[in-house]
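Lab channel / #folding
Pinned by the channel admin:
"Please post every new chain as: sequence first, then the structure tokens as a reply. Keep commentary short and put observations after the output so the thread stays searchable."

First post following the new format, from NK:
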Amino acid sequence: MIRPTRRAATDADFTRRRLAQLAVLGLAAGAAPAALPGPAAAATPSPATPAASRTHYDRARRLAGDDPVLRALVTALTPGSTLPALPAPAPVKLFDNLVLLSAGWVSAMAVLTDDGIVLIDALTSPADAEDVIVPGLRAVGADPAAIRHVVVTHGHPDHFGGAQTLAERYGARVHLSAADWDLLARTHPAHAPVRDLDIADGAHLTLGGTTIELHHTPGHTPGTVSPIIPVRAGRRHHSAMLWGGLNPPSTVPDLRTFLASVQSFRAVMRRTNVEVELSNHPNDHSLERAEQLRHQPPGAANPFLLGGPRTQRYMAVMDAMLRGRITDAEAAERVLGLLP
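Reply from TO:
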């Protein structure tokens, strides 16, 4: 079972400094294409992008090369980009014990074990729980009444929206980091789950012989959590990662926190021999890969199985893009006279 702990944390105050920085940062960063133009295309920073940050963005593009997964990541982290508008796919088993349940622009993952289901995220609302998660599990032969745990990666409504519904209906325990439980307590969003279990950094959640590691990766929110999930395909076992929240913050301190999370999680990935990359938003060519997997012949290579070097390169691309974002934010603060 999970080892809960209580840990206080606070958001950065939304002050005049942040409002001013957001305005200047929009000018300093330049405008990128608003959507992913194609499955293998990556956004290019605007000519207005400062040379110092362009160096980092260019490095990320070189690391991505022609890899559609990594190129999609570059696009997602390019200033000004937005998530592509994609239709919600039917549920699909990415691995024998892992189901993708998607509303299109946001997804949940169901980990199937011998003693029940661990759900990673709960989509946007009680309606999503009723209309996507419950029937989606039934469609792949799983019983939604077997949901024992709902792990919420961070405290935004598109990830916790259906959690309380599932808790009330099936008795599932809801897990969130202490910092993001506190975030919900301050902001009082609609459909917020009742505070239940805190996720400690590095916690192990075990159900039916399956152990999921939960690691704090703050940046997107103060308490974002990224899981390491054991998956299997036949007799083959692999380690999967799911980055808990990709959209970067705006301030220099928060961006540096995000970058530190990328670096620490890369070390976790090396230790656990991660070969599979997952995301809770379609910022990594994931829905296209899901359709490829759905229609490919038996025995074909699983498009989510990237291998160790490629998953490490995924994180290296994220690292380079974050360094570019930090450089942009520092330039914005200098314009405001907040940095020398």
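NK: The mean pLDDT is 87.
TO: also worth noting, Residues 308-335 form the longest helix (28 residues).
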